Structures are given as C-alpha cells and as structure tokens.
Amino acid sequence: xxxxxxxxxxxxxxxxxxxxxxxxxxxxxxxxxxxxxxxxxxxxxxxxxxxxxxxxxxxxxxxxxxxxxxxxxxxxxxxxxxxxxxxxxxxxxxxxxxxxxxxxxxxxxxxxxxxxxxxxxxxxxxxxxxxxxxxxxxxxxxxxxxxx
Length: 148
Description:
Strands 1-2 form a two-stranded antiparallel ribbon. The chain is mainly alpha-helical. The N and C termini lie far apart (95 Å). It has a domain at 9-55. It has helices spanning 25-30, 40-50, 60-66, 111-120, 127-144; strands at residues 22-23, 36-37. The protein is 35% helix and 3% strand.
C-alpha cells in the first residue's frame, strides 16, 4: 500500500481564491503562518480586518505600567543609553559651585552670549553695497593672480 502525499495550494485569506507567494510582512516578523494573499490589491482591501491578527498596539498608557516611559518608542538606539522618564526631581547645587549666568535669567538666556551676538551676526546690506563689492572684487582679481 503506497502513501501518496496530497499537496493543497494555499488559499488567499482575503478573498479565498488561489494564493500566490505574497505574505504579510508583519505576520512574517511575528511568526504568524498562513497569511498569504493572491494579490497586492487583495492584501490592501483586507488590511483593516487582517491587521487585527497582529495583536493590540502598545500605547503609552500600557507601557508606563510595564516599565519607565519611553518618549521615542520607534527610535533605533545605537548604544545602551536610554531616556528615563519621569525625570528625577531638581537637585540642589551647593553655593560653592559657581552658577552660569543663564541660570538666573528667567528665560535662560546667557548675558555674555547676548553681548557677543551683536558682534557675530552677519549683516545683510542693501543693493548699493553689491555694486561696491563687485568693483572691489574685479580690482582684486588681477592682484591675486586669478584669471577671469
């Protein structure tokens, strides 16, 4: 007596027709088998009901009960350092440690940086200065040995 293996073609879980090799990428990641579709269009049309197979999405309210709050849950960190929320209480700094000048400003502005700002800002001049700059540049080119 011979035993013959019977192979059945998988059916599309969207429309029930003959499925191709198109699988749901989320189901592949989660290890859910049998989520094959006949076409991309069938996958898109059945997505609202199919996505329920992936399970409930974790929200910020559920993540706070299981551990510290992560403000960037989808960020791919490159090292072991992670943000920790809630933040700890503000710590007291001893008077022996010199405070920066922005620590006492209500908006956190640094007085020394504000003084420097007037010196380091690039000033945009009007149209008359462009002509003067063109004359100066054309007179400097022969001196510097550049050719037009």
